[in-house]
Amino acid sequence: MTIQVLNGPNLGRLGLREPEKYGTTTYAQLVELLEATGRDLGVEVQVRQTDDEAEMLGWVHAAADAGDPVVLNPAAWSHTSIALRDALAQLTAGLVEVHITNIHQREEFRHHSYVSAVADGVIAGFGVLGYVLALQWIAQR
């Protein structure tokens, strides 16, 4: 099984962007953590990040075509992208939405996620541990 871990805009800046909110783990460290977690779980993990919504849509379409489960941190697209929500609705394997912060404790515009309606589960507010929890859930499914 290959689990696609897809990250949206600004997540490549982890460790640099607002560390008081998002922590000091860098994106490179996150990738290492997720690849190690995949090895421990006996699954392949492909981790990618983009600031380009069209590229993200292509990755989601490819995951849908391959039948791959997805762990997704849609970042700001959670609150704005109906196109991403519609692409995710095509997935036939598991989808877990992950947010490093608790979006419900943040600005009001962040409280709604278009992605949540098509996700099997949502993990928010546990920092980068949320990704590990999502991988564990998918691997045990």
TrEMBL record:
<comment type="pathway">
    <text>Metabolic intermediate biosynthesis; chorismate biosynthesis; chorismate from D-erythrose 4-phosphate and phosphoenolpyruvate: step 3/7.</text>
</comment>
<feature type="transmembrane region" description="Helical">
    <location>
        <begin position="114"/>
        <end position="139"/>
    </location>
</feature>
<feature type="binding site">
    <location>
        <position position="86"/>
    </location>
    <ligand>
        <name>substrate</name>
    </ligand>
</feature>
<keyword id="KW-1133">Transmembrane helix</keyword>
<protein>
    <recommendedName>
        <fullName>3-dehydroquinate dehydratase</fullName>
        <ecNumber>4.2.1.10</ecNumber>
    </recommendedName>
</protein>
<feature type="site" description="Transition state stabilizer">
    <location>
        <position position="17"/>
    </location>
</feature>
<dbReference type="Pfam" id="PF01220">
    <property type="entry name" value="DHquinase_II"/>
</dbReference>
<keyword id="KW-0057">Aromatic amino acid biosynthesis</keyword>
<comment type="similarity">
    <text>Belongs to the type-II 3-dehydroquinase family.</text>
</comment>
<feature type="active site" description="Proton donor">
    <location>
        <position position="99"/>
    </location>
</feature>
<comment type="function">
    <text>Catalyzes a trans-dehydration via an enolate intermediate.</text>
</comment>
<comment type="subunit">
    <text>Homododecamer.</text>
</comment>
<dbReference type="InterPro" id="IPR001874">
    <property type="entry name" value="DHquinase_II"/>
</dbReference>
<keyword id="KW-0028">Amino-acid biosynthesis</keyword>
<feature type="binding site">
    <location>
        <position position="79"/>
    </location>
    <ligand>
        <name>substrate</name>
    </ligand>
</feature>
<dbReference type="InterPro" id="IPR018509">
    <property type="entry name" value="DHquinase_II_CS"/>
</dbReference>
<keyword id="KW-0456">Lyase</keyword>
<keyword id="KW-0472">Membrane</keyword>
<feature type="binding site">
    <location>
        <position position="110"/>
    </location>
    <ligand>
        <name>substrate</name>
    </ligand>
</feature>
<feature type="active site" description="Proton acceptor">
    <location>
        <position position="22"/>
    </location>
</feature>
<feature type="binding site">
    <location>
        <position position="73"/>
    </location>
    <ligand>
        <name>substrate</name>
    </ligand>
</feature>
<feature type="binding site">
    <location>
        <begin position="100"/>
        <end position="101"/>
    </location>
    <ligand>
        <name>substrate</name>
    </ligand>
</feature>
<dbReference type="InterPro" id="IPR036441">
    <property type="entry name" value="DHquinase_II_sf"/>
</dbReference>
<keyword id="KW-0812">Transmembrane</keyword>
